[in-house]
Amino acid sequence: MTASVQTVPERLKERLQISGGSAALRIRFMGVLAFQALLMVVFTALVPRFIGWGNVQSILFTAAILAMVAAGQTLVVLTGNLDLSVGSIMGLSAYVVYDLASQAPVLKPYVVLVAIIFGVVLGAINGFLVAVLEIPSIVATLGTLSVYRGFVSFYAHAREVSVGELPQWARHLASANWLGVSAYVWLAVALVLLVGFALRTLPWGRKIYAYGSNPRAAYYYGLSSRRIVIGAYIGAGVIAALVGLLLGAQVGNINSLLADGIELQVLAAVVIGGVSIWGGSGTVYGAAMGAIVLATINNGLVLLGVQEFYRLIFQGAAIVAAVAVDALVQRRVQSATNRRAIMEVTS
Amino acid sequence: MRALTDVSFDFAAGEIHALVGENGAGKSTLVGVITGLIGPDSGFVELDGKPIRFRNPLEARAAGVTAVFQDPNLFPHLSVAENIFTGNYPRSGAFVDRKAMAREARAKLDDLGFDLDADRLVAGLTVAEAQFVEIARAVDTGLKILILDEPTSALTPGEAEKLYAVARKLKSLGTTVVWISHRMEEIRVLADTITVLRDGGHVQTSPAAELDDDAMIRLMVGRSVVLNQVARTEPVGPPRLAVEHLSLPGVFDDISFEVAEGEIVGVAGLVGSGRSEIAQGIFGLSPRMTGVVRVGGAQVKPRSPAAMADHGVVYLPEDRDAEGVISSLSIAANISLPSTRRLSRFGFMQSRRERELASQQGQALRIKGHVQDPVSSLSGGNRQKVALARWLATDPRVLLLDEPTHGIDVGTKAQVHDIMRNLAREGRMAILMISSDLLEVIAVSDRVLVISRGRLTADIPISEASQERILAAATRASNGKDAVA
User: Which domains does chain A have, with CATH numbers?
Assistant: First the structure.
């Protein structure tokens, strides 16, 4: 039949041109993979031991922590908001939860539960500020970043929680190797898959995408913006609180500055991974990929012996480049919906 | 402002009910009231004999009342299937059943005769396709009333035919289709009943067979407010702005006209006909536009607003709050904005000269308030004057005004009309005025251009212009040939 003969080029045309928006979004993910491959080739060429198993393990470990927090951050960024307070939530959770557990040993079996409660409360506060009081998220979470961190310092009183005070299992987990790879890496893989699955198949996850894609339409569709945004912040808060425990167990002696400043790296991972800073598009797998890219850059530059400020410059440039690419993608999406925009102007 | 006054009529089950009226007659407001977007101050809506009041569009939808608006409200990053089912996902247990979602979406689209891949992202769809998605979403077993607000305004004739078929199909299933439109020809072929609204009031509801086109237009335009025409004594000068064969794919096509020095040319046409886009194109806001623009005989390239302003062509947009004024700045700062270079010495703005310029313009245009007051403290009419003053301060030769009196009370309106006449007749400017208010067009213009669906359908000297004639040209489909293709 002639119809089937025509279908193939028609399909191809559709993929490449007409649905330019969707093609652009897919190409974005391939771009991150290609960039990662390029980084590995370059670093291996410059420092052969970069590709050694020990070093790869170290990269994966760094990436694991980042990827987990980035998975939480992705929830928030997909709604078109930011959460700058994740580092402070990690620090607060790690310090306060472990300290409570060492002072009241009854709590020891329940540290995970206590951390989850902290995550829910701190995330809900962020969500309340953004969704109910309608404070721009960058301002609201910049505020809570400071407030949460200030609270840990106040609570800590310049003391440290020492390795000995941590629960046994946490210390074991931090040094455990499963199938030759750190347990944290497996936890990160599991968490990323879990969040990815939830975003894809739970109504809650689909609504996050819908709201981030077009908040106005979400209203017409009867979606509750408050529930969606607060839910995303609680998700980010809980994940940050749990990862705080993991990071604390790995560090050992925990002071009030644990995970200070990590939020910028987390955001960088999310953005490099192709989650649109304007919301509505991107995946948690992309964010995890972004975490790996970032960990690779950091590791490679350390191996090269370059100084810290070069690392910062490189990291910053990567963020800007990623957002610039996203802006182009966004424009493709918009130009695809261009005639609609014209109609909005005229009506 | 009162958008609707005492509107009462019935929709019968299983009919196609056309709702007609000029721009601003209150059609969209009425839809908002029915679907719960806007709360009425008084009165009620009854469905199947029971009084109802929806608090939001979702409640209306649950009760079987859905509206599809002119501009699609969709999620561009999501697939067609997801857009159809968002908020109402097919589930298996706690999870969204994506396979069932795609399957049901496909079935729905097929049912309605829409040839659309359910897996495609909405970002890549045409406006017509996006509209199909909205309709597919609205069509549900419980659908009683489907309101379509200007559904064919962006469709090609072929796509529109498809939509007619869908409307007829829904009607045969017992759904009431409320079809809001300006287009005589489609109302003719579709409607069983016609309701005419005018100035927010209900004029008449009658069976389509009892109302011919002329009677319908008469009912749409009849109005009480009177605006005075002022006869001109000064002759018009040589052509100041001339455009030839302007085209912007999908928006307008082959537009040619001239505006002479000292002349006011009114541009009439329905919302969405491409009127504003033509002015925006001349002002350099549409780089993809083709055609020739001449200012004072010399050909210019409308590359950007700044370039056109240098040629003495300025554009005053309709949406003043978004585009026309910067409401957090003072009146003086707004007025001096395009003239900063002229007001500066050694690169620094001289605030004394800025204030002088502002108060001089403020007096000329009778702007209320002190020049240091923020524009946000002004009424709509005065904001409009500030926006105008800002451009007048640059001493332009061609003014493109888009709905210059939209949302302004009648008294201020007459003032703005006087100002425009002065600028043209004494200031020797060439003025192109886009307006939906036909009385205003007739009162102020020296000549009237009518745009319909992206084409120039009439060029009427003011001595021959009447509301009926303009409206007839504005609703005319230009011989089946259509710029919006």
Answer: 27-328 (1.10.3470)
